[in-house]
Amino acid sequence: MAEVREGLPVAILPAVPESAASRRGFVAAAVGLFALLAQLPILNRGAVPLDEGQLLVIAERILAGEVLYRDVYTGIFPGIYYLTAMLLDLLGEDVLVTRWAAAVVNAAIAAGLWLVGARAMRPGWALLAPALYVALVPFAYPALTMFNYSPLALVFAIWALFFLLRYLETARLADAAIAGLLLGACGLVKQNFGAFASLALALGYLWGRRGAAPVARRSALGGLLPIVACALLPALLAALGLAAAGAFGAFLQDTLLGIGDSQLEAFNDPIPPIFGPHPQDDGRFVFAYTPSSLYAYLVLGEELFGLEMSPGIRSTAIRLAYGGALATLLGGLWLLVADRCPLPKRRRAAGCVVCFAGLLFLGIFPSAIWSHLAYVLAPLLLLFALLAERSAAWLSRFGQTTERCFAGALGVLCVGALAVGAQVSLDLRRWYPEPLGLERGSLYVSHDQRALLAGAARFLASCSQPGQPVFVAPDMPLVYFLAERRNPTPYDLVIPGAIDEALIVRRLDDSGTECIVYNPKMYLQFAAFDELFPEVAAHLTSEYRRETVIQGESTAWWGLVRQRTRQSPVPRTPAPRTRGS
């Protein structure tokens, strides 16, 4: 019979070394390995022309010698782009490289959740959050299976929290320094996550230093100083590098001054009604707020465990996802004032977790769509596990049987979530069965994706040479990367906002761009292309003609060529590559 200690059977944990530190490290490694292996079935499935394409194209432009912000527009901090460029340079220019990077990030998030949880709750309960996160990855497809700045920033933040907890326990300056460096890395990847994580760690430090914590021997400012200094170091180095490249002014404008208005204008999506009615005939609402895997079942007309994706099930899923997140946050507030854990270390760690989960949740705004909720769920899963563990401890006053029944119910929930994730993974493999067949795209895709992406690459190969300028509009920059063609403008038109349309038109003319792949069906979340980019749309209409239709199953892209010629163009030498030219 399995020994029962601290609320969950010890037998569910593997045999581990004796010391607490080595035991935690061993279990963290096992959790990370399990998370990595669980992702293998869907690692190379499907393509994400928008987000994934934008990252790959910008990284490729950096490798070609262009300077971020000066030559290439993005509203996000530079960390992920330069990291992706380094990965492509070391491992080869293929989409699969970033898929492996995403899998490693998810594994590191799962391991970090275990390490933080093991300091705030009993070890068996600390497995709950990483297990639910592993189940979330396929359920949230494709948000967490592609390399993206939000999960990357989050993994840095979670590990910074882990080292902060170690610092509170030991007062070692090395732990404070590592926490600061990780916090700085988080900010370099995504600015709002960096700001929220910084505030969360500062509040967590002030909360955790109370009482007999080792760091209480230092003043509040003196204890924070090494974290702050090390957090600022990466930012200082990045600022010096951008200034040396002549991009610091554009960096400030694009990522700090201009992004607020453009984000609020393009992404002003509130949290959906938790109790009120959901619109049934609003395709944008359904697309934006339905959990993405369920949306796929809805579009394909397939069932999950025999359940058809009816409007009622879809609304229930939305209410559970958003309502569960908000209820967990409210539970965290209760925990701050009512935690009765007899171990001071765990109480301190619990307070830090509450601050962390609450502030990182704000990263969902201004666009509280499903994919953005998925990006902030990992800290909430940790808080959920903490609340479950404290609830089990409270139930123990009614007898061990009651506590074990509660723990068993949570175990069933966890196994059920993993089963759903496994089934979704199997269905994703079935939905994306065909090799893309392009040198830089070692992916398996749907017939629709293969027809569009491979068709676009063939069209560009027919009217341009490798390295020549082409233009792809509006929301499938992955075509640039797969076709090995360059964008002569700073913009990929993925996100409406601070776009200089006159500059796009001028660059298309100055570079002699002859070929354009155009998607007349704008991304469902946005208005029509000619409403968002009227000057560019007018230029495409007046200067280009439709040469071919690249036909998929769900939509069609157009292959456009300049009206004056169709023979092997030789583009003019482009103007110097600066944003204003």
Structure description:
- By secondary structure, the protein is mainly α.
- It has two domains: 349 residues, no CATH class; 119 residues, no CATH class.
- The protein contains 24 helices and ten strands.
- The strands form four sheets. A four-stranded mixed sheet has the order 7-8-10-9.
- Strand 9 and strand 10 form a beta hairpin.
Chart the SSEs and their pairings.
Elements: E1 4-5, E2 8-9, H1 20-39, H2 51-63, H3 79-91, H4 95-120, H5 123-126, H6 128-139, H7 149-170, H8 173-189, H9 191-208, H10 220-244, H11 248-257, H12 259-266, H13 283-289, H14 292-300, E3 303-304, E4 307-308, H15 311-338, H16 344-361, H17 370-375, H18 377-395, H19 400-431, E5 434-435, E6 444-445, H20 447-463, E7 471-473, H21 478-483, H22 501-510, E8 515-518, H23 529-532, H24 534-543, E9 544-551, E10 556-562
Parallel strand pairs: 7-8
Antiparallel strand pairs: 1-2, 3-4, 5-6, 8-10, 9-10
What are the key terms here?
581 residues, mainly alpha, 4-stranded mixed beta sheet, two-stranded antiparallel sheet, 61% helix, disordered N terminus
Number of domains: 2
Radius of gyration: 25 Å
Reported for the largest beta sheet, the result is:
4 strands, mixed
SS elements, strand count: 10
Strand line-up in the sheet with most strands: 7-8-10-9
Total number of helices: 24
Strand content: 5-15%
- What is the structural class? mainly alpha
Mean pLDDT: 89
Low-confidence stretches: 1-17, 565-578
Principal-axes shape call:
globular
**How far is it from the N-terminal to the C-terminal residue, by CA?**
75 Å
Helix content: 55-70%
